[in-house]
Amino acid sequence: MTITVLDTYPAIRGILRSPLSERPGLLRAMLEPAAGMYRYFPGEVDLVEMHRMGSGFPLDRDEKRCEEALEALHDADAWGRIERALDEAVAVQLAATPGITVPDITVLVVLGDPGDAHFTGTTLGMTANGSVSGYLFLNFWPYPENLARLEATAVHELNHNLRYSPGAVVWDPATVTVGEQVVSEGLADAFARQLCGDELGYTRIGVPHLDDEAVFAKVVSGLEVTGMRDFAAWVHGDAIAARYGATPVGLPTGAGYAVGNRLVDAYLAATGHTAAEALLTDSREVIDTALDRIA
């Protein structure tokens, strides 16, 4: 097992300083080592367009702001801290579940788009994805809160990656439930909190709703909804759903994360397990145990 954190710092700096006409090609070359994260997409994927859709740094504006932000990430040792955190997290996970197979993992760290109000505001300057086995995508704007959470964010996405690796929990886009996704977010946050502490381990967008009973009841009412096409609103909230053309359901940003944390914490309290030990627990077991305890 090898974890490779791609050294994208010099590549991003070079792109920002290059002539406009050369930037798409340079960006495509930087992204190519992580292209496998799109292997389940139908047809050929345009890596530059995926970068744009994922709120990656722009190619035609805001160069000075982006260079300053890139240096902030570099000065914070973002790449080194992420690599060390992932190495430690894998060791903790293997100690708890020695039978799992950890894949080789490629980690893509990019700078976000300061001109994207949805990214800088709604998602608080951070997007990430660890759902495709063997790849982690981490996109930051260096707000102080995000710099403090570099390790926790990486560890959260690692938890997803290991839960859905081959031989572990099966993810079928057509039949997977909102409950599975909500539980997976709670497990990932619980793992990040186990390693980094509660202050840093929670995903920021979910924190405002951790104690909101109306949000809890609403998300619980949708746990049996099937098919990942409906996940955006139930898990991420209406604003993020609207961004990607999904149907709102009346939930604030981060609702599913908040509820996932409450469900997982109740499950862990009832069973005495750690988050690492619960990595592969069936979401139905988590939900049923948690709701019995909370009732």
UniProtKB/TrEMBL annotation:
Start and end of every DUF2268 domain?
103-287
What is the name of this protein? Uncharacterized protein YjaZ
Q: What is the lineage of its organism?
A: Bacteria, Bacillati, Actinomycetota, Actinomycetes, Pseudonocardiales
